[in-house]
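Internal tracking record. Fields below are filled automatically when a chain is submitted to the structure queue. Please do not edit lines marked as system-generated. If the sequence contains nonstandard residues, flag them in the REMARKS field before resubmitting.
Queue: standard
Priority: normal
Entity type: single polypeptide chain
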Amino acid sequence: MTALYDELRTRRSDLPFRQARALRNIIAHDYGDIDHDLLRETMSTSVPQFAEALAAIPSRGEYQGDVR
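SYSTEM-GENERATED OUTPUT FOLLOWS
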């Protein structure tokens, strides 16, 4: 999984992978107080944009020229 994640980060370095992972860690591990207003704003604006950009990435086979 790490190799695939690294490949994706390389292919789409414009996407905020580091920030998404950091947000996940803060929520999952409850590092301090969570700003719920900021989280709500992020979930309603940034996350849908991030998901849309991820959905537009060709599958691994398509990217490598594999036309099965």
